[in-house]
Structures are given as structure tokens and as C-alpha cells.
């Protein structure tokens, strides 16, 4: 049975990912000056307890939190413009969850999330999800107004130019992958990748589509083209943590 990891991201995340992402966001969100605070995030003086099912859940939790951080101002503007926030039934302690789930909802074009039968439901997540989804039309309209107001062709245009350029450079960088030698040998990795249609080349300059090379300085690191990220994460080697994306 083929296991997939990235499909989950396209249809939404497990409840635990939203909870962990909200806890991370709570600690890293940009704090506004007192006279400019319109969205309140509750107390963040206590370090949150984070529990991850595995490395994949850890990675996507941090990715979701930092994505929400990049667009914090926009997400807050959408919540305020749509009048979805403030809401007396949602305490300040759940505002971070509201923001990270709003980011994910707009990423899914305001479509419903796929619910996974095997997961344990989290009451706070389901509450925020139901609340946001019930106002999806107002939220989508608020996003459209923000895009017109700022002349933004896409979400990335809300970011400062320096951050946009950093993101573009990062997306073009080759992918570095650690071989977990506690679980698999280098030769077995090479053999498995060959069966999957990958060809080993000599250097980074030779990378092209389904190819990879050894890192020049670390003999347990492989380098792949940046375009292969989604396909790599669908391999059993990653699902079994035999290969780890840096």
C-alpha cells in the first residue's frame, strides 16, 4: 500500500498539527504596540508543551506556524474586515489557532477539510474550524478586498520585496537529505532510489529532474533538485524516516 504524506497538506491537516502550529505561533507572532493592538492573542508567558506524532507532523506544524507568521498582518486584516473577529465565544487564548487555521483555509481556497477517520478529534480545532467555515464567504470577500486595496496579484505580493526574493531563492536551492544510517545503509538507499527511477550524478551542477548526487563534504547527505520535494516526501524512504529532509 502506497503511503502519501503531501496529500494531507492539500486537503488540510490533522487536528494535532493545528494545535501544535497554534502553540508555536503563539510564541513567535509579531507583538504590536499597545495603541495598535486590534487582535489579542492571550498570555504567551508560559512555554507550550509540544507533542509530535513523528517528524512529518513536526515539520508541517512548524511550516504552518511560520507561514501564518509571514502573513500575520494580512490574516488579521481579513478577520477584522470580515467582522469574524472579535467573537465573544472565542477567547484570546484561541486567537493563534484562529489565525493558523484561517491561513490554511484560504490556502485550500476556502474548501472543506478532509477529516481523517483514524485521528483523535480536538474540540478546540473543530470549534474554530466550524466557525471559520460558516463565514467562508465573508472571509473570501475580505481577502479579495485586501488584494484590490494593496494591488496584490497573489498572496506573495503582500510580503515585503526582500522576503519575496528570499523565498524565491530558497525555493530554487537544491534539497539536502540526510541518510538515517541507524535505519538503512548508503548502498540500500542507492538501490532503492534506482528502483524508483533516480539516477546518481557526480555533482550539483549535473542535477536535472530525477537525479541526485552525494554531498562533497558529508558522506551521509544526498542532494536533489528542488522541484522534487513533493515526490520525495511520498517515498517510503521518507515515510519510514530512513531519509530526512534537512
From TrEMBL:
InterPro entries named in the record: NSUN5_7_fdxn-like, NSUN7
Keyword tags: Methyltransferase, Transferase
Cited Gene3D superfamilies: Sun protein, domain 3 (3.30.70.1170)
Biological processes, Gene Ontology terms: methylation
One Pfam family matching this protein: NSUN5_fdxn-like
Domain of life per record: Eukaryota
Keyword Methyltransferase applies: yes
KW Nuclease (keyword) present: no
Gene label: Nsun7_0
GO MF term (any one): methyltransferase activity
UniProt-recorded name of the protein: NSUN7 methyltransferase
Amino acid at each position: 500500500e502506497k503511503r502519501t504524506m503531501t496529500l494531507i497538506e492539500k486537503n488540510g491537516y490533522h487536528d494535532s498539527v493545528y494545535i501544535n502550529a497554534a502553540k508555536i505561533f503563539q510564541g513567535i507572532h509579531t507583538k504590536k504596540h499597545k495603541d495598535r493592538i486590534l487582535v489579542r492573542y492571550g498570555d504567551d508567558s508560559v512555554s507550550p508543551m509540544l507533542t509530535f506524532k513523528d517528524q512529518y507532523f513536526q515539520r508541517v506544524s512548524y511550516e504552518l506556524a511560520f507561514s501564518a507568521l509571514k502573513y500575520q498582518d494580512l490574516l488579521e486584516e481579513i478577520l477584522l474586515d470580515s467582522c469574524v473577529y472579535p467573537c465573544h465565544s472565542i477567547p484570546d487564548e484561541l486567537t493563534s489557532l484562529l489565525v493558523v487555521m484561517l491561513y490554511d483555509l484560504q490556502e485550500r481556497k476556502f474548501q472543506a477539510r478532509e477529516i481523517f477517520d483514524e485521528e483523535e478529534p480536538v474540540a478546540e480545532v473543530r470549534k474554530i474550524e466550524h466557525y471559520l467555515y460558516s463565514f467562508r464567504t465573508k472571509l473570501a470577500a475580505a481577502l479579495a478586498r485586501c488584494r484590490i486595496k494593496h494591488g496584490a496579484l497573489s498572496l506573495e505580493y503582500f510580503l515585503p520585496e526582500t522576503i519575496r526574493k528570499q523565498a524565491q531563492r530558497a525555493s530554487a536551492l537544491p534539497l539536502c537529505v540526510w541518510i538515517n544510517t541507524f535505519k538503512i545503509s548508503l548502498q540500500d538507499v542507492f538501490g532503492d532510489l534506482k528502483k524508483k527511477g533516480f539516477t546518481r550524478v557526480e555533482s550539483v551542477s549535473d542535477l536535472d529532474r530525477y537525479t541526485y548526487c552525494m554531498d562533497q563534504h558529508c558522506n551521509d547527505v544526498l542532494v536533489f533538485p528542488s522541484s522534487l520535494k513533493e515526490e520525495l516526501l511520498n517515498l517510503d524512504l521518507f515515510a519510514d524516516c530512513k531519509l530526512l529532509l534537512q
